[in-house]
Amino acid sequence: GAVVSQHPSRVICKSGTSVKIECRSLDFQATTMFWYRQFPKQSLMLMATSNEGSKATYEQGVEKDKFLINHASLTLSTLTVTSAHPEDSSFYICSAPANPGGSPDTQYFGPGTRLTVL
Amino acid sequence: QKEVEQNSGPLSVPEGAIASLNCTYSDRGSQSFFWYRQYSGKSPELIMSIYSNGDKEDGRFTAQLNKASQYVSLLIRDSQPSDSATYLCAVTLDSSYKLIFGSGTRLLVRP
After folding, report:
1. Can you give the pLDDT of all 118 residues of chain A as single tens digits?
2. How far, in whole angstroms, is CA A43 from its chain's centroid?
3. In chain A, what residues touch B41 (CB-CB under 8 Å)?
4. Cis omega (within 30 of 0) for bond into A104
5. How many CB pairs under 8 A join A and B?
6. Residues A104, B97: C-beta atoms closer than 8 Å
């Protein structure tokens, strides 16, 4: 099946710093990617939809100035957590449909990035 | 009211038994329904998808959908200890790929 990678897999940073997380589709082009966040023992919550060549669409309650999304190419989306604070510590997961317009079965998840803000 | 609800568990079953996982959703317009398995510290992996009322079987897994009752379930036959994980129910509200997840049910299969 299609592969989505994320980098880094784990990051620890100090409060107030910014952290960039990359999501890449390795063997297909993704005009759309999704960013989810998962707090411990909670479910995945959709944060935003990343669109190649246009602005990201953010879900209600997600601060677009804090979570900057750039869909630089058809295989790369980045999420930057600006001025990170301990409450931003979470598991960030991206996903990408391998077959736009096709079955939703063809959405693939990255392995996730564990962010810990001290 | 949460859009997708699941019992958090844990659901504990002995090896070889049938595990039954349930999910209800609030939006009647929900179009697609999915079961994902998530091991601790890992991202979700798709187990089953179902789009129309009835049953869908794939190996040891059977998904059941009842749109009138807004209910979707997953049966795991011959449960194995390796099935121990959190099972996430997810729906899409439209033709997009945006998934709305339930909070997950933790399944524990006892050897």
Report:
1. 678 999 999 999 999 999 999 999 998 888 899 999 999 888 899 999 999 888 999 999 999 999 999 998 999 999 999 999 999 999 999 999 877 666 666 789 999 999 999 9
2. 15
3. 91, 112, 114
4. no
5. 47
6. yes
